Amino acid sequence: MSSRLRHSAGLCFLSMVLAGACGNDNPKLVITGIEPDKGDVGGGTSVHIHGNRFRAEGPRNVKVYFGGHEAHVDRFLSDDELIVQTPGGKLNESVDVLIVFDPGGKVNLPNAFRYIEKSQTGPSVDDLNINPDKKPKK
User: Fold this and answer.
1) What is the CATH number of the domain that holds 38?
2) Would the pLDDT of 12 be above 90?
3) Is 18 helix (H, G, I), strand (E, B) or coil?
4) Angstrom distances, CA of residue 122 to CA of 52, 126, 127, 134
5) H or E stretch including 50?
6) What total number of domains does the chain contain?
7) Binning pLDDT at 50, 70 and 90, where does residue 60 land?
8) Residue range of the domain that includes 111
């Protein structure tokens, strides 16, 4: 076998291993992460839960808990992404995120989400300069 052919075969094998490790071909329901991993202490942060096989075997019921408080499930965006709205929490507290699929079981992500105070330093709607004669706020 030539070195070029061995190199190609090795890359092909590596691609298959990486695809499996990344969850692309995993035959089981898996959670790979959430984003963002922090949000407003008052709740209402949209959190995307990533994984695979969320809907592959048909419809599933899902409940998601942040520190024991149930989140509002918005929707399944795809077979590998679920969107929820966080409940409120305690400032600077890191909480476990528990995802319960029926059927499918449950996955606990320890200390996966932290509650923070909503940033007051970012731009707001009031910062928009819609009227050209109006001076920007300082």
Assistant:
1) 2.60.40.10
2) no
3) helix
4) 34, 11, 10, 20
5) strand 46-52
6) 1
7) confident
8) 29-118
Residue 13 lies in a domain: no
Contact predicate 126/138, CB 8 Å: no
Interatomic CA distance for residues 87 and 66, integer angstroms: 7
Check residue 104 and give its pLDDT.
Answer: 87
Torsions phi, psi for 84 (to 5 deg)? -130, 160
CB 129 within 8 A of CB 136: yes
Beta bridge partners of 48: 35, 83
**H or E element in which residue 32 lies:** strand 30-35
Q: Which residue has the tokens 């989140």?
A: 71
Does 24 fall in a domain?
A: no
* Residue from 57, 37, 54 nearest 112 by CA: 37
Q: How far is CA 64 from the centre of its chain?
A: 12
Tokens found for residue 6: 């061995």
Q: Is 21 within a domain?
A: no
Token pair for 30 = 């898996």
Is there a domain that residue 48 lies in?
A: yes
Which candidate, 18, 26, 37, places its Cα nearest to that of 80?
26
pTM beyond cutoff 0.85: no
- The predicted pLDDT at position 29 comes to 86
